[in-house]
Amino acid sequence: MDWAQGLWLLALTALFILLIRWLFGRQGGLPPGPAPLPLLGNLLQLKSREIHKPLLELSKTYGPVYTLYIGPRPAVVLCGYQAVKEALVDQSEIFSGRAEVPIVDLTSAGYGIAFSNGERWKELRRFSLTTLRNFGVGKRSIEERIQEEVHHLVEFFKEMRGSLFNPAFFIRRSVSNVICSVMFGKRFEYTDQKLQKLLDLMEENLRRVDNIWVQLYNFIPSILNLLPGPHNRLRENYQDQLRYVEEVVKKHEESLDPANPRDYIDAFLIKMQQEKKNPQTEYILPNLLSSALDIFFAGQESTSSTLSYGLLILMKYPHIKEKVQKEIEHVIGRSRRPCMEDRAKMPYTEAVLHEVMRFTDFLPIGAPRGTTEKTRFRGYTLPKGTFVITFLHSVLYDPSLFKNPYEFDPEHFLDENGSFKKNEGFMVFSAGKRICPGEGLARMELFIYLTTLLQTFDLRPVTAPEEIDLSPEYSGLGKKAPSFQLSLVTD
């Protein structure tokens, strides 16, 4: 090797070192964390579909607040109740942003509620919460809709008595009808193929989130935009979802009566008319379509999955199921429908429902947050726009708050007298300003669905309870119950 070649090699080495420092330098005094690889960051350490497991292992080395790299991008991970609470509750405004993720450009492009920021998010969230309340969410009227929808499900299940079947599909269709009545002004038969296609598209995109092509898009979107690949299917699926809602919107426009809005879509259309001369308005068609999809997804996906998982868990632990059924018999009996007034008189059932939600842990790493301004957090400096992972699994399974976190134990929510007790670690719906707006609806649905089903049927598993495997299936960044069958019997 002559001196010229050596000089070039030295220059390239220096350039490579500078590149790595530029890509992975801990700008702004971010917390320490595992050393990243060039371009890949810490992705090889996160390759497990059970992503919460490597995140927990890393916290044992680096503590409750650390930095890892998702490709070349740093992400600050918050582990355990105290760290998450300090961010989402104590600094709720600063941690209320949604992290900017390139794959959003393949779907909502920042429209709607779920992945918007700033004034758009504030305005659409405020409008949506008010509108949902106006159409009964959190009130007696939505309770009656839930009761009616459960009645349809019970009647269907009665036709299945004695036969083995997987209830997940029918539960999902039933729960989706509750939010459909608010969003679209009607319920759908379980055989409706258009609605089923919408549900299938949503489920497929949820699975695709952790596809390697989709993940690569997050690192090099400008390049992958030019290439064919499965990441484009994410966009195509979402466009199909938008077309479904657009068809519904067109039908609403044809029969719209501004004096008598029938549902969320009508209310949004009326707002669009009122603000059509405002060039800065957020009441535009793309926001209507994406907001409707956001609310529809949030209003059925986690609730239906949690309810199905709950049935499997109760078959695994028949002594718990029997205690719930005894409480139902004592408080409600068999001659009337369960209602929300019963909940306060049923502490054991309430504890079981909370434990089902905690144990199933639908979205282990939570939705990504972004800081809205530069802030100091536990001695570190987080620049504006810092990608933050609020690791909800580490809260729901925090041993300082749950004595047996990896066991299904309703005692986590009961005091020594058998009364229901709240637990600060119950952050199933997240916390702070980005807390799930459908929390009240989900709690109502889970209580009425579960008590009605256990009031009407007994659950019979395919195998002995001790042989039931509760290991979840992973769908993208979420969890759901493994596929299972049961039979339903009545006295």
Describe this structure in words.
- The protein is of the alpha+beta class.
- It has 2 domains: 1-26; 31-489, Cytochrome P450 (Cytochrome p450, Orthogonal Bundle), CATH 1.10.630.
- Helices cover 49% and strands 9% of the residues.
- The protein has 16 helices and 11 strands.
- It has helices at 3-24, 52-62, 80-90, 118-134, 140-159, 168-183, 193-208, 212-219, 221-224, 231-254, 264-274, 285-316, 318-331, 347-360, 392-396, 439-456, and strands spanning 65-70, 73-79, 97-98, 369-370, 375-377, 380-382, 387-391, 458-461, 473-475, 478-480, 486-489.
- It has a 5-stranded mixed β-sheet with strand order 1-2-7-4-3. A two-stranded antiparallel sheet has the order 5-6. A two-stranded antiparallel sheet has the order 8-11.
- A hairpin with a 2-residue loop joins strand 1 (65-70) and strand 2 (73-79).
- It is globular, with a radius of gyration of 24 Å.
- The N and C termini lie far apart (89 Å).
- One of its GO terms (biological process) is epoxygenase P450 pathway.
- It is found in: Endoplasmic reticulum membrane; Microsome membrane.
In short:
This protein is α+β, with helices and mostly antiparallel strands and 491 residues long. Helices cover 49% and strands 9% of the residues. The chain is built from 16 helices and 11 strands.
Keywords:
Cytochrome P450, oxidoreductase activity, acting on paired donors, with incorporation or reduction of molecular oxygen, reduced flavin or flavoprotein as one donor, and incorporation of one atom of oxygen, 491 residues, Cytochrome p450, alpha+beta, endoplasmic reticulum, globular, two-stranded antiparallel ribbon, membrane
